[in-house]
Amino acid sequence: MSPFFSTIRGHRAFQALHYREFRLVCGGQVFGNIGMWMDELSRGWLIYQLTDSVVQLGLVRGIQFIPTLLISPLAGTAADRYSRKTLMLVSQAMQGLSFAVLALLIFSKLVEPWHVYVIAVVAGTMQAIQQPARSAIVTDTVPLELLTNAIGLTALIFNGSRLLGPALAGALIALVDTGGAFAVQAACMFIAVVWTAQLAPLPPSDGRAMMARRESYAYSIVEGWKFSWHNQTVRAGILTTTIVCALMFPFTTLLPVFARDLLGVGAEGQGLLLAAMGFGALISAATIALAGHRLTRGRVMIDSSIVYGLTLVVFAVSPWYSLSIAAMVVAGLCHVHANALVHTVVQSHSPPEYRGRTMALFNMSQMLSTAGSMLIGLLAFVLGSRGAVAAMGIVGALGIVILVWLMPRARQIK
Fold first, then answer.
1. What is the maximal distance between C-alpha atoms in the chain?
2. Cα–Cα distance, 388 to 384 (Å, whole number)
3. pTM of the entire predicted model
4. Cα–Cα distance between 355 and 366 in angstroms, integer?
5. Are 340 and 232 in contact (CB under 8 A)?
6. Are 120 and 60 in contact (CB under 8 A)?
7. Lowest-confidence range among 105-114, 153-162, 298-307?
């Protein structure tokens, strides 16, 4: 190995990749996240193509909130009881199958709006099952002192996929319509299954699982919620993510309207908007992987969240595509600076026996973006798309200011 590659391999930013199991998790995440981010564009484009309705555009995203709300607490408890590898395998395979079915319906010209809603529910269910296991398994694969580095690297993968996935989906829609995009999404999920299948299984005598199985599901869920609420650091992190994901991130729901009707750039232009957000997110994730261990996590996640809300106002009123692209870069940077650091805070301040359940709550707060998608779709009907995005951004920024006023120590979280 050359001195250059030896230096790169030895750099702190890549230390977590020295562990085989973590490399396998990353390989699965590369393809799973590409498929998921392609779906962010292709599903919205498909329903807007079929219905021409901003309300349905919000509903097709928001419908995912129902299975997430119902299943995430059970999924978090399952991640503390059973094989996280098995939970990931089943959910990835089912999600890939659902994308393949929708691709066949599109190619056969039989697709109807209700098909898109059914697939959205299936995708939401599988993501709800997969996310607590996938988040918690990262901690199982690296030493605790490398957790920030590992989460920074997974955020880098997640946001690299955000950069590639929508651009790929937009190009495929332009070439072969949405059917081609969903077919590639299915292939990505099945490749993720291949990577995940190579993970070593958890030992049957794992103490975490044995202890959790002695409790009823209801008791385990309540105990996880109690721990998350009484631990002020975990509570501050989850509330920050709740505000960001419920009131800020849902603006992406209306991107087909901005791309097609307000900016006039079409599906490829929407792909570039999401890719710009992914580029900003990639810069943020790289910063966390390189220097996240030196950041005052609370201050960065709070300040980034406030800037995020103000950036949405700029995006909402922008009449120029170039300014919209710049706003998307800043939004992507702020989104990851808030969420990836919260992810690290929640994981590092949760003991192993609670980690699946705290990550389920973290993921539930993230998935509130689907409820926010329903809200922003309705607001767009009343205020117009620009007014809806600006209103949500302002309310979100004010929400973070109120959080800091009520919990001033949140900015001092290490």
1. 61
2. 6
3. 0.68
4. 16
5. no
6. yes
7. 153-162
Is the pLDDT score of 232 beyond 50? yes
**Least confident residue range of 120-134, 163-177, 199-213, 262-276:** 199-213
Q: What is the CATH number of the domain that holds 200?
A: 1.20.1250.20
Q: In this structure, what DSSP letter does residue 203 have?
A: P
Q: How far is CA 384 from the centre of its chain?
A: 26
CA distances from 6 to 2, 59, 319, 351 (A): 6, 50, 48, 34
Strand segments (E) across 112-216: none
CA–CA distance, 246 with 113 (Å, rounded to integer): 25
**Residue written as token pair 């001092």:** 412
Contact 3, 139 (CB under 8 A): no
- Say if CB 285 and CB 152 are below 8 A apart: yes
- Give the chain's length: 414
Task: Determine the Cα–Cα distance for residues 385 and 365; give it in Å rounded to an integer.
Answer: 24
pLDDT in tens, 322-333: 899 999 999 988
In whole angstroms, what separates CA 319 from the centre of its chain? 28
Residue 43 to residue 181: CA distance in whole angstroms: 9
| Sign of the CA dihedral with 74 first, then 76, 78, and 81 last | negative
Q: Identify the pLDDT of residue 183.
A: 94
More confident: 25 or 153 = 25
Question: What's the half-sphere exposure (Cβ side, CA atoms, 13 Å) at 193?
Answer: 15
Q: CB-based burial of residue 401 (10 Å sphere; 0-12 exposed, 13-18 middle, 19+ buried)? A: middle
Q: Is 313:398 a contact under the CB 8 Å cutoff?
A: no
Q: Using CA atoms, how far apart are residues 227 and 353, in angstroms rounded to an integer? A: 11
**What domain count does the chain have?**
1
Integer Cα distance of 323 and 304 in angstroms: 19
User: Among 252, 247, 248, which Cα is nearest to 43's?
Assistant: 252
Find the domain containing 111 and state its range: 3-412
Contacts 24+ apart (CB under 8 A), 107-112: 107/179, 111/46, 111/50, 112/50
At residue 313 the predicted structure's pLDDT band, cuts being 50, 70 and 90, is: very high
Summarize the confidence of residues 362-385 as an average pLDDT.
Answer: 78
Amino acid at 388: A
- Which pLDDT belongs to residue 333? 85
Q: Token digits for 199?
A: 């993970």
